[in-house]
């Protein structure tokens, strides 16, 4: 990073899972730097979805470094996700034809729910000789039986990580959704399902979705729960592969609660 900015900048790691993000500051100027960030950061910036993109530079080794405004602020608390501004910003993202066109142009293929299910099944078959759970097998059977409810749905740009710490509220009251490394072209029910399941009481889902701009009906509910179950299984598998047994068990407990709610037990 020093060769781009010069030695008079103070550069510190910004944390995160990839270790590719940095803070830089010099004489009151402050930037957020990232290596090989999402290629559609410029469109996200232009639409006011992420902090302003200041510049992009390509390194000799092919890496691309982006610099964004470093804004003072904080992540939203879990309780703040149930707010009309979150619903409206997510709706803006899901309805952006510019974002969708760009993501398709750079080669993102629409995420097919059947492919999601096959990947989950393949992972479970690979793991079954070591450690598996009857609840996962029952849930996979349920996803297979419900597949027709999620096939052939319109696709939008989905962020795919609705964790509250990706929602940034700045000190001057601007709301952003950051960290777009996992973005996909998918059914909006994927984002909606996880956000509502994690953060909004179910009796308030209809009101939240009205702010987002859709009616809450049986068809949408089936799609959201399909993706909630699929993503919960994926989290279990992810943590299990990393020998993170406590986290895997926590997600398995969540899956069991979902199974009871949806009547999947002994399905």
Automatic annotation (TrEMBL):
Residues 14-222 form the Aminoglycoside phosphotransferase domain. It comes from the Bacteria. GO terms for molecular function: transferase activity. The keyword Transferase applies. Pfam families: APH. Coiled coil: none annotated. Keywords: Transferase. This is Phosphotransferase. It comes from Pontibacillus halophilus JSM 076056 = DSM 19796.
């Amino acid at each position: 990073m020093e060769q781009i900015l010069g030695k008079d900048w103070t550069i510190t790691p910004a944390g995160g899972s990839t270790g590719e993000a940095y803070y830089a500051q010099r004489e009151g100027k402050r930037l957020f730097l990232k290596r090989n960030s999402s290629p559609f950061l410029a469109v996200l910036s232009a639409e006011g979805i992420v902090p302003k993109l200041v510049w992009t530079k390509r390194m000799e080794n092919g890496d691309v470094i982006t610099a964004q405004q470093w804004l003072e602020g904080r992540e939203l608390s879990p309780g703040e996700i149930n707010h009309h501004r979150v619903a409206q910003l997510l709706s803006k993202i899901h309805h952006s034809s510019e974002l969708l066109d760009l993501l398709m142009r750079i080669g993102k293929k629409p995420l097919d729910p059947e492919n999601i299910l096959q990947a989950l099944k393949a992972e479970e078959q690979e793991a079954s000789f070591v450690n598996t759970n009857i609840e996962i097998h029952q849930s996979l059977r349920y996803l297979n039986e419900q597949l027709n409810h999620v096939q052939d749905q319109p696709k939008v740009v989905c962020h795919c990580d609705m964790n509250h710490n990706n929602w940034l509220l700045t000190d001057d009251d601007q709301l952003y959704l950051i960290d777009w490394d996992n973005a996909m072209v998918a059914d909006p029910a994927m984002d909606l399902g996880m956000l509502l399941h994690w953060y909004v009481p179910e009796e308030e889902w209809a009101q939240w979705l009205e702010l987002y701009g859709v009616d809450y009906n049986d068809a949408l509910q089936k799609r959201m729960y399909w993706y909630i179950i699929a993503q919960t299984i994926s989290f279990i598998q992810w943590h299990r592969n990393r020998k993170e047994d406590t986290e895997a068990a926590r997600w398995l407990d969540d899956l069991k609660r979902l199974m009871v709610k949806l009547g999947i037990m002994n399905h």
